Amino acid sequence: SAVISQKPSRDICQRGTSLTIQCQVDSQVTMMFWYRQQPGQSLTLIATANQGSEATYESGFVIDKFPISRPNLTFSTLTVSNMSPEDSSIYLCSPQKGYEQFFGPGTRLTVL
Amino acid sequence: AQSVTQPDIHITVSEGASLELRCNYSYGATPYLFWYVQSPGQGLQLLLKYFSGDTLVQGIKGFEAEFKRSQSSFNLRKPSVHWSDAAEYFCAVVDRGSTLGRLYFGRGTQLTVWP
User: Fold this and answer.
1) Concatenated DSSP letters for B2-13?
2) Rounded to whole angstroms, how far apart are CA atoms B98 and A38?
3) Helix, coil or strand: residue B71
4) Which of A103, A107, A109 is the best mutation test for B, with the most CBs of B within 10 A?
5) Which 3 state secondary structure label does DSSP give B63?
6) pLDDT above 90 (res B28)
7) Do B107 and A41 count as a contact with CB atoms less than 8 A apart?
8) What are the distances in angstroms from CA A9 to CA A12, A28, B92?
9) What is the Cα–Cα distance from A86 to A61, expressed in whole angstroms?
10) Hey, which of A31, A109, B10, B21 has its CA 20 to 30 A from A50?
11) Are A43 and B49 inside 8 Å of each other by CB?
């Protein structure tokens, strides 16, 4: 398994600003996934971050809006840029071990 | 296209009653199969998984799921529901042929438990 911590756990932000979410894992993992869960919805994959390479983004998500860093095998960040109320969601990082993915409590973001 | 279907958006059961949550998938080959639970304000917790072998898998919290290849289904069951089982349940799959190993999620089933 894996223990995941995310910071911040929640935040309220003004539109037009940016927020960087940090994800720390207690062990080394090669692949890290970032998901968004809009209110009352399922999880949508934003991008996949492999250490040492550029993140791969899903359709509808772009690097300028959601830049990701993966400086080492236990840490990653996701930035939500130029936020609008539509970005209000829970953001979750998910490290992968084998074919299993693990989830932390996520970051609950509200954009006013 | 790959898809995961959870046909029930919301299920209500009485405490002590049995539970079955449905999940169907559409893939060319049998994927890896998962059930996750999300309690209010929490992240996702893995209940159980199926990779191969015995088609009836046991998970945590008294849950089990049965893989049926002929029906492309992986339904979650519990013989006696507790009030603490009230949560959102997500079925998810990983395409065995994918080098990426990303999860595809169903839309979720919200479980309400009456006392």
Assistant:
1) -EEE---SEEEE
2) 26
3) helix
4) A103
5) coil
6) no
7) yes
8) 11, 22, 24
9) 13
10) A109
11) no
Within 8 A of B41 by CB-CB distance, chain A residues are: 105, 108
The token pair at A75 is: 């840490």
Integer CA distances (angstroms), A86 to A38, A45, A65, A89, B81, in order: 9, 16, 13, 8, 36
Q: Which of B5, B23, B44 to mutate to test the interface with A (most CBs of A within 10 A)?
A: B44
pLDDT at B1: 61
Quote the pLDDT of residue B27.
Answer: 74
What's the N-to-C CA distance of chain A in angstroms?
36
Nearest to B94 among A48, A99, A103 (CB): A99
Give B28 or A60, the one with higher predicted confidence: A60
Spatial distance between the Cα atoms of B35 and B48, rounded to a whole number of angstroms: 6
Q: What is the pLDDT of residues A59-106, one digit of tens each?
A: 999 999 999 999 999 999 999 999 999 999 999 999 998 888 899 889
* B49-58 pLDDT, tens digit each: 999 899 999 9
- Sequence-distant contacts of A62-69: CB under 8 A, at least 24 apart: A66/A34, A68/A34
Longest pairwise C-alpha distance within chain A:
39
Report pLDDT digits (tens) over B92-106.
998 877 767 788 999
